[in-house]
Automatic annotation (TrEMBL):
<keyword id="KW-0902">Two-component regulatory system</keyword>
<protein>
    <recommendedName>
        <fullName>histidine kinase</fullName>
        <ecNumber>2.7.13.3</ecNumber>
    </recommendedName>
</protein>
<keyword id="KW-0597">Phosphoprotein</keyword>
<dbReference type="Pfam" id="PF00512">
    <property type="entry name" value="HisKA"/>
</dbReference>
<keyword id="KW-0067">ATP-binding</keyword>
<dbReference type="InterPro" id="IPR003594">
    <property type="entry name" value="HATPase_dom"/>
</dbReference>
<dbReference type="GO" id="GO:0005524">
    <property type="term" value="F:ATP binding"/>
</dbReference>
<keyword id="KW-0749">Sporulation</keyword>
<keyword id="KW-0808">Transferase</keyword>
<dbReference type="InterPro" id="IPR005467">
    <property type="entry name" value="His_kinase_dom"/>
</dbReference>
<dbReference type="InterPro" id="IPR036890">
    <property type="entry name" value="HATPase_C_sf"/>
</dbReference>
<dbReference type="InterPro" id="IPR004358">
    <property type="entry name" value="Sig_transdc_His_kin-like_C"/>
</dbReference>
<feature type="domain" description="Histidine kinase">
    <location>
        <begin position="268"/>
        <end position="473"/>
    </location>
</feature>
<keyword id="KW-0418">Kinase</keyword>
<dbReference type="InterPro" id="IPR036097">
    <property type="entry name" value="HisK_dim/P_sf"/>
</dbReference>
<keyword id="KW-0547">Nucleotide-binding</keyword>
<dbReference type="GO" id="GO:0000155">
    <property type="term" value="F:phosphorelay sensor kinase activity"/>
</dbReference>
Amino acid sequence: MKFILAKRRDINMLSRHLSQLEPFQDCGEQIDQAKFSSRILNHISECALLTDQNGIILNFNEQSKQYFEMRAGIKIYTYLKPEHVEWLKSCMMNNKADEREIQLLFVDSDHECTCEFIPVTGEERFILIFKDINKGPEDEIFTTIFDKAIHGLMLINANGSVVRSNLFANKLLNLQNGRKVNIYRLLDEYETEKNIPGFDQQFAPQATENIVSDVIKIRSHYFEFTKVNEISQGYDLIVIRDISEVVEYMRRVDHQDTLKVVGQLAAGIAHEIRNPMTSLKGFIQLLEPNLKDHQKMYFEVINSELKRIETIMTEFLMLAKPKNTVFEKINLTRVLADTVDMMKPQAILHDVDIKFNARQSEHLTFGDANRLKQVFINLIKNALEAMPDKGEIFVSVETSGNQHLISVKDNGCGIPEEKLNKLNEPFFTTKVNGTGLGLPVSLKIIEEHQGTVNVISRLYEGTEFKIGLPLME
Ligand SMILES: Nc1ncnc2c1ncn2[C@@H]1O[C@H](COP(=O)(O)OP(=O)(O)OP(=O)(O)O)[C@@H](O)[C@H]1O
Ligand SMILES: [Mg+2]
């Protein structure tokens, strides 16, 4: 009883707010009357609507739309039995709050409910609140669970219009209660993520399965939208889950799987290729002294091709089974200076200038100098290949916070955004003679050194690889 009184007091207060609408408008304030009454009606947790003195429905809340299929502009009397119409008309005449049990009549169903009649103070408008008699307290509990669920929930009708959405969904998709939105049109604005291992179902209105899902990227998070068809007659439910962490994990696992396959492949064929290669190399050396001048060119080609096969095999094996790395105290300034010196002749051939800048003469870390050299060679080689005619490469090392930061920067062709996440895929290459193993091997080496790699690239402007390596303890 106490609860009902308190509720009645609140509604009276709301109705007073509603009556203050006109004076505000007189003041010239731009208040949208329908919007204002919607806000008030939506504060009422039961089905509530606003009528004028002729019983014409002016506005109603979300609950009414959902449960009673109300329509504005129609007389409320259409939905009532004659004796209830009489009662309502007399309430309007007396302009006094009242309550009674009535029956709401719809085309395919009737609802027994209590109708609370509240006149809006100083207005010829009335609030009617309908409470389903057969509705137990669990409905209120379910409503709260729906609204406050930790995942997004949306009820949509057959056309895809959002009938009801909870706080999570409202916040994510900037939905506002009372504003009609079509979910399919809304989701068109966002990017759909394909090729996520483990998520391959389609989220489409015409899909026939009972449950379909899709992953959509919204503000750099991945959300799984799952549609449960016909959760209740004419309505589908959409559940939205933030699966950013899962996607990240799945991608990592998938990448590891690829590496494993490459590894097994490498281990399997390494012997098969290396043995005949050793014989080939031996025979070719035997032939060399007897070669005529015009044959020497072919000899060079055969030799360099054999070397290339050897390099590919070595890199292949590196992915499969890293060599026993020798970790020791090393000076990155030294390692980088040596690498830059080594790459200078190649750079001159490309008409590229390499600049090296070390903040200090010593940047000490714990690592394998030869393996790290291999990383820096790969990065400088890529930079050179990104600038076929002229350019500059900046190599630098400095200490920042708790790590050494190494940067290899070029002003070459840059990498298109959609290709950036392919860089650590073995065999991803855009070059005629590339193997696409340079970066995966380099990233693996950095990973073994507990380091990090960041890539910043702008198409036609250049690329910077930033490597972080731990300081020597
Ligand atoms: N500095 C860069 N500028 C522009 N594109 C780059 C750069 N570094 C890497 N890439 C792109 O990344 C791809 C993969 O590089 P990665 O070093 O793994 O293989 P690759 O250079 O193609 O072949 P390999 O290194 O085995 O000779 C390259 O083909 C290129 O498209
Ligand atoms: Mg390369």
